[in-house]
Design goal:
Layout: H1 2-13, H2 23-45, H3 59-62, H4 65-96, H5 102-142, H6 146-174, H7 176-185, H8 190-220
Helix pairs in contact: 1-4, 1-5, 4-5, 5-6, 6-7
Amino acid sequence: MLSMALDRFLAIRKPLLYHQENSRNRLYISIFLSFFFGIFYVAFANYNPDNSLVKSCSIGGTVTLMFISAYAIFSFIMAVCILAAYSSSVAYLVKHSTIVDQRFKAALTRQRKVFASISLILLTYAVFWCLPLFAGIIVLVTNPNPILLGYMSMAIGLGSGLNSCVGIFIYLAKHPEIKKYFLQLFPSFKKLVEHEESQAVIGKAQLEVIPLLEINKDVQGPEKSV
């Protein structure tokens, strides 16, 4: 998510130079950091200065309080950085909207279309992930009750799953190429999607026809009664 937010920030800030820069290096760095932090946190979750054996058959019981605090701090920093990058992108969009250079405006318009789908992704991230996370941090700082921490952990886990699921449908709705391969992978959804698309086309056509009918009535004038 942080890589996505930073990528959109760079695209909005320098739309003319964005495609000229080497984006492959950014992709490799993002993949490396994702795997690195994943492996690091799996190892860190099992680290415990206390050498006593774990007797609870539960993941929550084996995770140390140090890991919970470190994970909360790290997640909070990541969320703040993501929201800061997104807010900066919005500020640059507003600032650059008054530029009259046609080449710059064309590049910015293209990036704005991509930014729309990314905005939905970041919105779901803020609702389903950031809100439960911030609530959990408040509980951890003010009243570290194990029961409340358990409920907050459940909310964070549920929000994380919802964020991942909703993101898939946003990509399917905004990117036709992803929808194409999805329908090839799951043919049973093809008829349903085709039906929804046909209904949307019919509804759009009706909305376009109704104003034309109203214009024709105004041009012809009211019918005279015999």
